[in-house]
Design brief:
single chain; 390 residues; alpha/beta; Rossmann fold; 2 domains; nine-stranded mixed sheet; four-stranded parallel sheet; binds adenosine-5'-triphosphate; binds magnesium ion
Length: 390
């Protein structure tokens, strides 16, 4: 069994340099670790600031989906938002004894056990809150409530690409079709689904309902005893019923029954009323944010970089790919000059008369999640061993 344990906090952590370069340091360490095919990676949550740690682990998960990650988090209690962030990445092995002495015995036990499941990790998501305004009083008249931090369980091996837009009509669905087509063309099994509308009545129309003129074929599939409407177009599937589901949690089990490699998730417009969509962007292997850079539409983008605007949870935009849809050269230049310090990489998307027209920017956006960049589950030298066995 290959393993790597980072248990001792390096003195660099407390130093001035760490404040300056800490993010680079933990990132490089974890990314370097991804070059080795480990069975298990053990990380102490306290060795780096949480945002750097989450971002590095996110990249690691994409690179090494089959390595079991164990997190050391001594002294943490259920409801800890940093541990919840780890669980949101699909990492469920959390070693959290009361103090440092308990770490090694508990870690040994965890390593010897089967990998933890979502159900075991779910206790971390129970947040005890005491809040005067809450109506349900706990024992002794103390206001008390339980809030659950929502984390969904997703099928193993499915890479999610979340696509959302700054405002309505910015080209999210068009981009989803192009992305799905690109992946399907390269022999991947792809499904495109829309974000469910919520508690509304079933049968909400899909935005992809009118694809027959483009050659889409429709089919009813049975899943969990219900008939599900699917469309097939250019080698990929579109899950036409997703919108009428109550929440994304219902979408995953239905999708899991076919073994897809990629889920392209059309989140539609992001806004203050949709923090769960922003969480979905952060959780996805790849998050693409479509923005219209035209001067009359840019105000839709501004709340996402305005830390003073408390109505919107300000996401970490540097981890998202910005797709500047239908922007002309002047708009692209202005956007880069104005917002480069807030955003990650920006990809101009040109006019595409149909989805078969594939500009280079689609491939560039998808680069981090293409199979060439995600190490497969093959063991090193497996081909050599296979030859020697002959
Ligand atoms: N890059 C593009 N090239 C050509 N047409 C485009 C492009 N982007 C968007 N369109 C067209 O603009 C219209 C709106 O785009 P689309 O439906 O993809 O936006 P949306 O963000 O999904 O909108 P909604 O908020 O309604 O879901 C569509 O007719 C679409 O075909
Ligand atoms: Mg749309």
């Amino acid at each position: 069994m290959n393993g790597c344990i980072v248990h001792k906090k390096h003195e660099f952590y407390d130093s001035f340099q760490f404040q300056e370069y800490g993010e680079v340091d933990v990132r490089n360490a974890i990314i370097s670790a991804s070059r080795i095919n480990l069975d298990i990676l053990v990380i102490d949550l306290d060795t780096a600031p949480v945002t750097a740690m989450l971002s590095a682990l996110h990249t690691y998960r994409v690179q090494r989906p089959n390595t079991r990650i164990i997190i050391l988090a001594p002294g943490r209690q259920p409801g800890d938002t940093e541990v919840a962030g780890i669980i949101a990445l699909g990492i469920y092995d959390i070693v959290a004894p009361e103090d440092d002495e308990g770490v090694i015995p508990e870690l040994t036990q965890v390593i010897n056990n089967q990998p933890a499941t979502y159900t075991q990790a779910a206790r971390w998501l129970q947040l005890e809150r005491s809040d005067k305004d809450y109506s349900n009083k706990g024992a002794g008249g103390q206001p008390k409530s339980r809030t659950e931090i929502l984390v969904q369980q997703r099928p193993l091996g499915l890479t999610t690409i979340a696509v959302a837009g700054a405002g309505p009509g910015v080209g999210v669905s068009h981009l989803c079709l192009s992305v799905a087509y690109h992946l399907a063309k390269n022999n991947n099994r792809v499904v495109l689904a829309e974000w469910p509308i919520g508690e509304k009545k079933a049968g909400v129309e899909s935005q992809y309902g009118c694809l027959s003129p483009l050659g889409a074929k429709h089919e009813l599939q049975k899943a969990h005893g219900i008939n599900i409407k699917m469309a097939h177009l250019n080698g990929f599937d579109i899950f036409l019923d997703a919108r009428s589901f109550r929440s994304i949690e219902y979408v995953f089990p239905v999708i899991a029954q076919n073994s897809y490699d990629y889920l392209v998730l059309d989140l539609g417009e992001l806004g203050p009323e949709s923090p769960e969509k922003i969480a979905e962007m952060d959780r996805a292997a790849l998050a693409v944010f479509a923005v219209n850079a035209a001067p009359y539409r840019i105000e839709r983008f501004l709340p996402f970089i305005d830390e003073q605007d408390l109505s919107v949870y300000v996401p970490n935009l540097t981890r998202w790919k910005i797709a500047l849809n239908l922007a002309n050269d002047k708009e692209i230049k202005w956007f880069l000059d104005t917002f480069s310090k807030y955003v990650g990489k920006v990809y101009p998307i040109p006019y595409m008369a149909n989805i078969i027209e594939q500009p280079d920017s689609i491939k560039d956006i998808l680069q981090p999640v293409l199979p060439t960049n995600v190490v497969a589950s093959k063991k090193p030298f497996s081909w050599l061993k296979a030859i020697l066995k002959k």
